[in-house]
Structures are given as structure tokens and as C-alpha cells.
Amino acid sequence: MLPVTAEDHLNGPVAVLANSAAGRGRYSALLPRLLDGLAAAGRPIRLLTATGPAEAEAACRAAVADGAGALVAIGGDGTVHRALQAVAGTDVPFGPIPAGTGNDFALDTGFPADPLAAAEVIADAVRAGRTSAVDLARMTGGDGTERWYGAVLAAGFDAIVNERANRMRWPRGPRRYDLAILVELARLRPRRYTLRLDGVPHELDAVLVAVGNCPTYGGGMRICPDADPTDGLLDVVVAGRVNRRTLIRVKPRIYQGTHVSHPLVRSFRARTVELSAEGITTYADGERSLGLPVTISAVPGALRLLR
Can you give 13-59 as a three-state secondary structure string? Predict the structure, then answer.
């Protein structure tokens, strides 16, 4: 096989990863119209096939290696997360079409909330050869494993709740997550974290730690309200020794981003964040990711967005 050249990517097809289960399937009927909208760019459309997250990620990597001219992800933040692993740090442009339960990365980077409108924006950008550079966060685990994320890394209470929900077999649907919250609230306790922010150490006890490239996670919760995916920095938000009653009272304020004014919440900003604690598995873009310790670096301009 001949090596793929920059010209191949320039003229290559638009590869499309579509998650039919995203948004609990409510957008699946839109897929033909979305593909037609993308085809208006005048490029061939290549629909990728995958039966699960690992296959989806592998299909994206293969498409990029085969000379795709662009990659589009139709789904939520989990679908976007898989696609980012293939295009991060490359010249292959990317377009997210928000069609999931949580569409934080797409909305935080300026794409319309309506999937058809987002497809039109992406098609117009492909046709015009227009891209916009944004930052991504690169994680490195203790064993050297590297992963990328676009929105927010959760490494506290929310990550623990996700772990609990993923282990539960009953109930199904959103109620499983609600039950996991109740179980973990009953077990809530501060944990000792070590943070190194651009090399400066901080020892602290906390129940919630989030590292944001973008402001929102969980479908619009502004956990890192001042995060900007074009400033070359990561925003770190830490809720300290918060008890159950306070956490329940403060958590709704996250939707407006006003929780950061609470006296037990601290905010930091850094280019590189080293984070460690015992017994925590992180969740990035809502997807199960690396266990602590991890090093997270802001990588300026790591992604070329089609808008």
C-alpha cells in the first residue's frame, strides 16, 4: 500500500461516524438527511461501521490512515471522544454534529444545537476549505498511555458516580444513574488529592475535581465556567471538604456556573496539570478513561474544526 499523502487528505472523502443509539435513538431517523446535508460539500461520503465504542475508535483511526479528507461524528460527547482520538494533532479537520444526550463539546465550540444546521455549517466549511483551530487536552497515564479529550475530565464525585452506575445491572436507563448518586452521596467523603499546576504542588482534600478544556459537561453543567478552548490553558475546579447537604445545595448552581463563588470551591488555571489520588478512575467527555495518577496538558490548536 502506498503511503497516504497530504494531497490525499485534501481531496479525500468525508468519513462519518454515526452513533444510532446516541440521544436514546431519537435522532436515528435523521441520518439520511444529515448525510445528504454533508454531501452538499461536493465530497464523497463514507459512512463508518462499528458496533461499539472500541470499534468506533478503530474505524476512525483507519479512515484517517486511509486518507479521509475530514471526519464527522454524529452523536453525543462519547461519540466525539472516540473520533477525537483519530484526528487530534493531525491535519484532518473534524466536525461534530450534536445528536446525543450530552453535546457539550459541539456546543461549547460554536456549533448549532440543531443537527441539520450543524451539518450545513460543516458542509459549507468543507466546501470552502475553512477550518478553525481549537485546543484539546492530552492525558498521559502512569503507564504512559495517552488519551485526548475535548470538554472536561471528571476526577471526583461525578467520576465515582459513573463508576457505580456502570457496575449496576438494575435499574435500566437514567434511573440507574439517579440511584448511583444516592448510593455515593451516602458514602461521600473528601479524598486527599495531590495537584501539580505547572510544577507547583498543592495538597488538598476534595470531593470533586474537574479539569476543563471547555466549560461544560453532563449536558450543559458549567462546571468550569471560565474555560476557553482557545486560550492554551486548562481550568481546574475543586470542591473541597463539602458535606452531603452542601453538595446537594450547590450542585444545581453548576448549570449557571455560579458554584465557583462558594467559599469551599477553588479554581485554578494551568498549562499542565498533574493529578493523583487513591482509587479514582477518571471520566473524560463522559467516557471511562484513565485511572489516577494522570498528567493533563493543554495542546494549543490540536484540532481543526470545520466551522
Answer: CEEEEECCCHHHHCCHHHHHHHHHHHHCCCCCEEECCCCCHHHHHHH
